[in-house]
Amino acid sequence: MLRIAVPNKGTLSKPASDMLREAGYRQRGDDRDLVCVDADNGVEFFYLRPRDIAVYVGSGDLDLGITGQDLLVDSGAPVSELLPLGFAPATFRFAAPPETVRDVPDLAGRRIATAYPGVVERFLADHEIKADVVRLDGAVENAVRLGVADVIADVVATGGTLRQAGLVPVGEPILVSEAVLVGRPEGERNGAVNQLLRRLQGVLVARRYVMLAYDVRADRLEGAVALTPGIESPTVSPLHREGWVAVQAMVMRTEVHRIMDELYDLGARAILVTDIHACRL
Ligand SMILES: Nc1ncnc2c1ncn2[C@@H]1O[C@H](COP(=O)(O)OP(=O)(O)OP(=O)(O)O)[C@@H](O)[C@H]1O
Ligand SMILES: O=P(O)(O)OC[C@H]1O[C@H](OP(=O)(O)OP(=O)(O)O)[C@H](O)[C@@H]1O
Ligand SMILES: [Mg+2]
């Protein structure tokens, strides 16, 4: 059986389980369950702290896992990213009170509070900066106010927590992160692993694309197809009405309204959009 680690709590937990459910896997019914067996698909899910997931996968005790790229870097575990999953986007950055630490070289000699010492120490080593890393568990934005540190390094999503703590970012983001599927670098890509990858890729495509259908005069077809080239090629079928065709193509969800307006201007009619629930490309 394939053994997969899924975040048990926190930001990654619900979107990870939702995505697996959308991909057709059974997920736990109770937030306190720590294991869920999906016998039909030959998969066993283990619910673990996202921070620990790369460690279990790196040691070979579990085959695959879902975690954050920043947590992965922090762990230093020997695992590979197999697929970015498109949720839990965040940056990881330094922040300090305004006008105190202006840029990265100013970090030298400072006390930096963080729950991600691995990420911070690697950054400091790469930039040949000597500073003291103060390892905290969370709520690190408070560390400056309380006098424990001069600077923090933490996850920034909306930036709301930084603003409320009266801190401003220092320098560019240290890294950009999202949820990822991880596995061992030398891990076997057997049937079950490839099936999971195809299913998750199917969910990503189903979320990013919609199906667009419309009717257009045959003499306008080339212009319409240029707007909706699809992924492979659009489907074109004859209509009963002489001189008209029906077209079907996948388009990016974020582009669909612009494309519909342009198709309408081109003379297309009966332009319909439908969601894709699942797919294998
Ligand atoms: N607003 C956010 N807050 C925290 N983590 C976030 C946020 N947005 C995305 N993430 C990502 O989620 C992962 C952190 O998840 P984790 O469960 O460890 O922390 P958490 O959601 O803050 O939970 P906890 O309550 O344990 O602090 C990281 O990969 C991080 O980049
Ligand atoms: O940019 P924002 O949208 O404000 O989100 C980022 C904040 O959210 C997380 O904190 P969390 O609520 O998980 O508390 P914690 O520090 O105790 O982990 C993270 O550690 C930041 O503090
Ligand atoms: Mg947190």
TrEMBL record:
The keyword Cell membrane does not apply. It holds the Pfam family HisG. One of its GO terms (biological process) is L-histidine biosynthetic process. Its cofactor is Mg(2+). It is found in: Cytoplasm. It is an enzyme of class 2 (transferase). Feedback inhibited by histidine. Residues 49-202 form the ATP phosphoribosyltransferase catalytic domain. Pathway: Amino-acid biosynthesis; L-histidine biosynthesis; L-histidine from 5-phospho-alpha-D-ribose 1-diphosphate: step 1/9. Its EC number is 2.4.2.17. GO terms for cellular component: cytoplasm. GO terms for molecular function: ATP binding; ATP phosphoribosyltransferase activity; magnesium ion binding. Keywords: Amino-acid biosynthesis, ATP-binding, Cytoplasm, Glycosyltransferase, Histidine biosynthesis, Magnesium, Metal-binding, Nucleotide-binding, Transferase. Residues 206-277 form the Histidine biosynthesis HisG C-terminal domain. It catalyses: 1-(5-phospho-beta-D-ribosyl)-ATP + diphosphate = 5-phospho-alpha-D-ribose 1-diphosphate + ATP. PROSITE patterns: ATP_P_PHORIBOSYLTR. PANTHER family: ATP PHOSPHORIBOSYLTRANSFERASE (PTHR21403:SF8), ATP PHOSPHORIBOSYLTRANSFERASE ATP-PRTASE (PTHR21403). Catalyzes the condensation of ATP and 5-phosphoribose 1-diphosphate to form N'-(5'-phosphoribosyl)-ATP (PR-ATP). Has a crucial role in the pathway because the rate of histidine biosynthesis seems to be controlled primarily by regulation of HisG enzymatic activity. Belongs to the ATP phosphoribosyltransferase family. Long subfamily. This is ATP phosphoribosyltransferase. It comes from Catellatospora methionotrophica.
